[in-house]
Specification:
Number of helices: 5
Strand content: under 5%
Structural class: mainly alpha
Shape: globular
Distance between the termini: 63 Å
Amino acid sequence: MSETPQNESPDSPDSPESPDFDAMTRDIAEVPAVEVIVTVAVNLMSAAAVKLGLTEEGDKYKDLDEARKLVHALAGLLDAGATEVSSFHAAPLRDGLKSLQLAFREASLIPDEPGQGPGEKYTGPVYG
């Protein structure tokens, strides 16, 4: 049976269970900004797809209010980051965003007016 020394709590920096924040900081410092932006965008896309019911689970996690927020945040990130990432990265992300916007419009019982859907503040109206 393993015991934690009396002067060392399980959450102390020297504990084997606690994260090594110095190593994590060094790791993130080595990641290029473009990679961070693309990773965040892909995470937003994935979360939006789940909330739109586009995954194998279908409607189990569908929540259009949450999807709207995620798609809007993705559009804002891509709008702000477009000049910071190459078209090699930006083009497929924009395509994914448009697909999510169209899926949102299709899933809505009462579709938003053109230009009022999630993220359309940044992309302009999205049509199929």
